[in-house]
Amino acid sequence: MTVQTKICGLKDPVALQAALDGGADAIGLVFYARSPRAISPAAAGALVGGVADVMKVGLFVDPDDDLLDSTLEGVALDLVQLHGAETPARVAEIGARTGLPTMKAFKIRHVEDLGAVADYDSATSWLLFDAKAPDDARDALPGGNGITFDWRLLAGRDWQHPWMLSGGLDADNVAEAIRISGAPWVDVSSGVESAPGEKDPARITAFLNAVRAVQ
Q1: Average pLDDT, 10 consecutive residues per value, the chain (215 residues)
Q2: Among the CATH numbers 3.20.20.70, 3.90.1170.20, 3.10.580.10, 1.20.1250.20, which is that of 4-212?
Q3: Are 57 and 26 in contact (CB under 8 A)?
Q4: Which of 69, 119, 130, 172 is catalytic?
Q5: Which of these is catalytic: 8, 25, 170, 187?
Q6: Is 66 an annotated catalytic residue?
Q7: For residues 7 and 43, is the Cβ–Cβ distance under 8 A?
């Protein structure tokens, strides 16, 4: 099995080039103002406007129509990632409005957290499984908190849609995460940073090499 990779939260050309040079299959752009990885539509358009042969993913958290419209005016995306409390109806509405496939993120801590996935089968095209922040976590973000969950919860499951594993992955643990979960895609953000929102090109390269080594 060839495992594919997404580097999320890119903001600068040096980190972007490291992702492209390393063979990333997808790049993520965060359109959520609270995130240290947030980027404006204009800046995102300038950053990835000439990028081809890689999937460009826009991450949103409970976006309204104005944000979706203004973002897509500034940057051409291939996939809309929804990381908030979007209902199945809203996910389907966003897909219809943008004309793009959507990926719904699910926050996982216990097996019961997987129960909602079936509700989105007809609403979304992709699934993403991320770690749920602890209940007592202060100022936790919807994603990119650098924590893992029990990857065994995903092992052996046959999902209707393609899916990505996220949450606390880095070059040191991604091979084990793939082995245990069977993930066909892995998504990394904080695990390739030197500080919140600051991507480290060397860590991006190391992560991509680590994934390639388990092929």
Answers
A1: 94 98 98 96 96 96 97 97 97 98 96 94 96 64 70 93 96 97 97 96 98 90
A2: 3.20.20.70
A3: yes
A4: 130
A5: 8
A6: no
A7: no
